Amino acid sequence: MKKEQKTVVIQTLGCKLNFAESAAMLQLLEQKGYRQVKMGEEADLCIINTCSVTETADQKDRQTIHKLVRMYPQAFVAVCGCYAQLKPQEIANIPGVDLVLGADFKLEMAELIEDKKRENCLVKASANDEIKRFLPACSKGNRTRFFLKVQDGCDYFCAYCTVPYARGRSRNPDIASLVAQAKEVAENGGKEIVLTGINIGTFGKSTGENFLQLIQALDQVEGIERYRISSMEPDLLSDEMIAFVAQSKRFAPHFHLPLQAGNNEMLDLMGRHYHRELFAEKIHAIKKAMPDAFIGVDVIVGMRGEKEELFEDGRQFLESLPISQLHVFSYSERPGTRALNIDYKVAEKDKKQRSRLLHELSEQKRLEFYRSQSGKKRSVLFEHGKKNGKMYGFSDNYIRVEAPYRKDWENSTQTLCLGNFNEDKSALIAKLS
């Protein structure tokens, strides 16, 4: 009798880069005869791809591992990702875990899994300065948007961050291989690609190329209608990049810049590579070249050293900028980081209050930006599916757009005039007449 095909279930936690890497590991497993199944279905192999950006993420990792070990008692359980790199032995001590892979061993997932559970957990993890390999990865987001990994690792070692320890130093594939992946996405019907990585502005360190050359090459790929650039460090966003996006055929007027703090004293404590004056210059340069560009900004609240007056100074700075949305994160203490040497600690209640204030500012900025786009024509890429007779998509400048459902508009781009807000103000309604 022919043996049934082996099955695998994958639980991915954290960032879009993790999702792209899970898709890459799944491809390798499919070559070994595995078929992916949905969570809850019977599986021979269970993979948990973890995140470790905060202590809350670590807690969620542990809870997920325990849950899936209970859910799949007979399955071979493998854990990888940032938490697995930073605390491999902690994971290995969890009963039921069979394999723990650090950052440099994810490529070996398909080779190291076994048909039956191990008596002793196998751990393969190297020191962070020995992480050298690059796992090519590209994943579907919602059958319309793809996430293409162009870079991994970081050399910045900011005072609050463990990412360089979890991901290693900056490294990348060559432009030719990424262009080939983009062409494959186009052949599979993908319309939009988001370029992802840890610090994508350092692209080229491994190959002698640079990020501007990368986006110039990708812009020539026929079939891809739109690219978005994920988080770009402000000191690495050059005037040439801004100018290129402004005149390119396919790169969207959409930027995401991590500021982290709007006060220079806090930026110094964080070990960032710029002051707020440079950040403001980049924001105004984008708006001068692309007045309708969407600009998202990352901010951390409550890091050690953030006294009330420093937070308020930063908040006022953010309020003064022509930005579109804030992504607000509460500071989380991470073992081994330099921030732990700072004496002043922010109380949890103050962190929550500051987070609330910045979320309110973010919503104010988003509504202002949406209002500024009402009445304008924009290119909208609609997603699959409908909800209450409606369909949704995003304009090139990242406005969420609502329209009556039309099957022939799924995964297609329509040039439409944007109208007023929908009922919950989460989107602008497309004018169809």
Question: What does it look like?
Answer:
Helix content is 33%, strand content 22%. It contains 13 helices and 18 strands. With 433 residues, it is α/β, with parallel strands linked by helices. Strands 2-1-3-4-5-6 form a six-stranded parallel β-sheet, with helices on both faces. The protein folds into three domains: 6-126, Rossmann fold, CATH 3.40.50.12160; 138-372, tm_1862 like domain (pyruvate-formate lyase- activating enzyme, Alpha-Beta Horseshoe), CATH 3.80.30; 377-431, OB fold (Dihydrolipoamide Acetyltransferase, E2P) (Beta Barrel), CATH 2.40.50.
CATH class designation of the largest domain: Alpha Beta
Q: Low-confidence runs (pLDDT<50, min 5 residues)?
A: none
Helix content: 25-40%
The major sheet is characterized as: 6 strands, parallel
Count helical runs: 13
Helix and strand content put the structural class at alpha/beta
Number-wise, the strands total: 18
- Judging by the overall fold, what is the CATH architecture of the largest domain? Alpha-Beta Horseshoe
User: What shape does the CA trace take?
Assistant: globular
Give me the CATH fold name of the largest domain: pyruvate-formate lyase- activating enzyme
The end-to-end distance, rounded to whole angstroms, is 62 Å
Q: Please tell me the total number of domains.
A: 3
What keyword list fits this structure?
pyruvate-formate lyase- activating enzyme, six-stranded parallel sheet, OB fold (Dihydrolipoamide Acetyltransferase, E2P), about 425 residues, 13 helices, alpha/beta, about 20% strand, five-stranded mixed β-barrel, single chain, Rossmann fold
